[in-house]
Amino acid sequence: MNDLAPTGRLRAAINYGNPVLAQQGPDGSPQGVSVALAKALASELGVVLEMLTFDAAGKVFSALETGAWNIAFLAIDPLREEQIAFSEPYVIIEGTYLVATDSAYTSVVDLDKPGLRLAVGQGAAYDLFLTRTLKHAQLERAQTSASAVDLFCQSGLDAAAGVRQPLQKIAEVDSRYRVLQDAFTSIRQAMAVPQGREAGAAYVQQFVERMKAQGFIQAVLADNGQHDVTVAPTRHSSLKL
Fold first, then answer.
1. Domain limits at 123?
2. What residue spans of the chain are helical by DSSP H?
3. 191 pairs with which residues across the strands?
4. CA neighbor of 235 nearest in space, from 89, 94, 34
5. Residue 147 sits in a domain of what CATH number?
6. Are residues 132 and 153 located together in one domain of the fold?
7. Average pLDDT, rounded, for the chain
8. 208 within domain boundaries
9. CB count in 10 Å sphere of residue 237
10. Rg for the chain, CA atoms, rounded
11. pLDDT in tens, 61-107
């Protein structure tokens, strides 16, 4: 399909910044649910898959300007929708905070007060969301989600914002930190196609719905040890197109 693989190669942007969706395997190659979806789509189209890896979602979005990729895996966000056509989400994950165990913070609302400083990964979905919604707290941006946690720990900030699962793994191995039980947003992860490629976007939309309905996404998440991730519900109407 010309919209998705005009040169016979499907160039897929893989974001390591969200380890729920993509990770480096033991041999260094990409793995995870976004990688599995990219491989399945390339196979279905009968084209060669070329994976381009990034360490942050903001860098994936920036690479759109150079036409580096044909498809990507990003969280749906109004700012990104100006340049990207998103499928329906395939997984839904929570954005929350990592805080010091001995801090007084018990809810995400406690972190939006004057004088508080929060670490975020620049250009991540939760950075975009918090930029729009925070009224008092100040965001301190690091280049990646992982370095945002380092910034929080090393600079004595009040919290690090991020995806619940990787933050929870940090808290499980370091008793100095804990993760808040509630969330400031639900992050809807989707497949993305550059705006203006209507046929490609429509194909990807139906592809994602079929993968959800067939149990493909749930199975891949389980195989990768991501048992606590919510697969987005299927829009049955999409399957009838």
1. 94-185
2. 33-45, 57-63, 125-133, 145-155, 164-173, 198-213, 216-223
3. 73
4. 89
5. 3.40.190.10
6. yes
7. 93
8. yes
9. 8
10. 18
11. 999 999 999 999 999 999 999 999 999 999 999 999 999 999 999 99
